[in-house]
Amino acid sequence: xxxxxxxxxxxxxxxxxxxxxxxxxxxxxxxxxxxxxxxxxxxxxxxxxxxxxxxxxxxxxxxxxxxxxxxxxxxxxxxxxxxxxxxxxxxxxxxxxxxxxxxxxxxxxxxxxxxxxxxxxxxxxxxxxxxxxxxxxxxxxxxxxxxxxxxxxxxxxxxxxxxxxxxxxxxxx
Length: 173
Prior knowledge:
By secondary structure, this protein is α+β, with helices and mostly antiparallel strands. The protein has five helices and seven strands. The protein folds into two domains: 14-134, no CATH class; 135-168. It is globular, with a radius of gyration of 16 Å. This is Zinc ribbon domain-containing protein. It comes from Streptomyces musisoli.
């Protein structure tokens, strides 16, 4: 991991992980030229919606259509972050208009932003200073269900137990 943040294993439905085949994976966007080629292949309708993204263990951004599973975008591998991302072209330059860590397959912590920022900087994409929509994930210590914490209400929606303040989704992490 050398100099990188926490890594995230896939914690979503096993059948989605099992469906990933060799060669699956999002489009690798390591440089500005990679993004330029990729964006030219997208229709206006596709660009109007956010895309699925992961930051692979190599620190590189990977993009896939919005309705793609994050685990498929990652080729089944661990990630440094995952979520949804949207782009807009401003004065002839592509900008990240929205970005979140919304991935119920990996449930990355909001602290994974630094990995996203590095990957976007490498691709020379203008970006916000953080996630435009942060999702707080927690695993219930009692019933083991994954939760999305809303409005700082750290209570399990499944069993009513208190959720921990610190990220704990992957028990092996």
